[in-house]
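Notes from hallway chat w/ T.B., transcribed later so I don't forget. T.B. wanted the structure written out for a chain they're using in a teaching module, and asked if we could keep both sequence and C-alpha cells in one place. Agreed to drop them here.
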Amino acid sequence: MKARTMGKWLVGGAALMASVVAMTSVLQAESVGNAKVQKARRTLINLSTLDQMTVLPGDLGPLPAVPIPASNPQTPAKIELGKMLFFDPRLSENDHWSCATCHNPSFGYSDGLPRSMGFGDSELGRHSPTVINIAYNSTQFWDGRAATMEDQATGPIVASKEMNSDPKQMIAEITDIPFYSQQFKDVFGGPPSMKNVGMAIASFERTIVTGDSKFDRYAKGDKKALTNQEKRGLTMFISKAACTQCHNGPNFTDSSFQNLGVPQEGPLAEDLGRYEVTKDPKDKGAFKVPTLRNIAMTPPYMHTGTFNSLDEVVDFYNKGGGSLPNKSPKILPLNMNDDEKKDLVAFLKTLTGELPQVIPPQLPPRS
C-alpha cells in the first residue's frame, strides 16, 4: 500500500516538476527578451556614434521599390482608372461617399476625424487609417482582415455601415457610364466587375507612397539632414524608448498586432480588434502596428482616434500605455524626461516625405 502510494507520489511529483521546468523555461525566455529590451533602453547612443553607423538598428532605412503582385501589374491606364474610381461617390449606394471621403489627400489620406463617419452620417467605431504606404503592408485594415489591397479596396464599398453599395447595382451603374465602360474594356478586356474595380483602385493606391524625407536623406549618408535634436530623438527611438520593437524596417512597422491598452472611445462598447479575425484569445484588443512615415500628417492617433497630437501619443507610451486586459508585454514605462520626449517627437516629424501630387479628377458624366 505504501509502495503504491509512493509510486503515485513520484509520478505526480515528476509531472509537477516537468510543469515547473517548462514554466521556468518560458519565464526565462520572456526574461531574456525583456532583458534585451531593458538593455537597449539603457544603452544611449551619442550623436557621434550615431553618425558613424552605416546600418541603423531595426533595419531602419529608405523604402525599397513598391511590391507589385504578378496578378495585378501596374499600367498608366489602370492607375488613372483607379484614381477616378477612388474619387467617385457613385460607388456608394447614395452617390455620397467615395474612397476619398475617408482617405482624403488633404488629411494625409485619412479624414482628420477621431472616428470616420459612415453611411447615413453615423459614426463608425474606428479611426480611418491612412492609405500612405499600404502597398508595403502584409495585411490591411486595423484588424488585418483583408489579405490584399484588392480586397481592401472593395470591402468598404459593400460594407453596410460604410458605402453600403449593392455590388450588382453599383456595377450596373458604372457600366452605364460610357467612359467607364470603355476604360474597363481597354484596361481589362471586358466590362466592369467588382474584381476589376478592386484591381484598379489598388493600382492607384500603390502610387501613394512617401518620397524623400529628412530621415531618408540622413539614412542615405547626409549626416547634416537632421538637426542635433532630431538625432537625439532617433537615439531615443532605437534605444531608451525601444520603438523599433514594433516600428522597424523601412516602413517603420513590423505589421504585427499589439494591444497597447488604448482606452475604448466612440460608439462601440468594446472592440476586440484582431481577435474578431483570428478568434485567438491572445489577439483580444490587438490592432495593427501602423507605419510611422508621414505620421505628422495623420492626426488624431490610434484606432480610436484618442490622441490629438504626437506629444499625447509619446506621453501615453512613456507612462507604459493603458491598463486594459491582455496588454502587450512590450509596453512598459519608458521614464523619458520632458526634453527626451520633445526630441522623440522632433524625430518622428522627420519621417514626413513627399507624396505624389494628386488632383481630384473630373469624373465622367452618366451619359
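Follow-up for T.B.: The mean pLDDT is 89. Might be a good example for the class.
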